[in-house]
Write the structure tokens for this entry.
Amino acid sequence: MQLRSHVITDPLFDRTIMLLVGGTPADVRAFLEMRHGRDYSLANKDNECDDDKDDYNDGAEFHINGPDNLETYYVWVKDPTPGLLHHEVFHLAHDVLHVAGVTFTDESEEAFAYWSEHVYAQMFALLFDVTPAAVQ
């Protein structure tokens, strides 16, 4: 399946999130180079992610730091399934909220749950041709 991209809205933290579907890790790297140039570097919530590894066989979540701390977040799923999508959105929620300064605790757990529900519904709707309201 050829690599496709979709932009997802994040009204809470005003982050750019791109859902990448299909392709291979090499296709994802080519897409990122086209968008960000040759000198991009991947990060996750711990600011470490190895772009040279091909062990992201089915999916991955990461972000690319931009000027003025304007990160672009990515979720890539090779062959989308509801479970794989949920798995990657879980990583995405921790990454976005961590960068925004929200630590996962008993007190912040609902923020993670509601944020990930919103983003998951948008991505699921795009991938499986339903309305976001039907997912929630």
Observations:
- The longest strand covers residues 16-21.
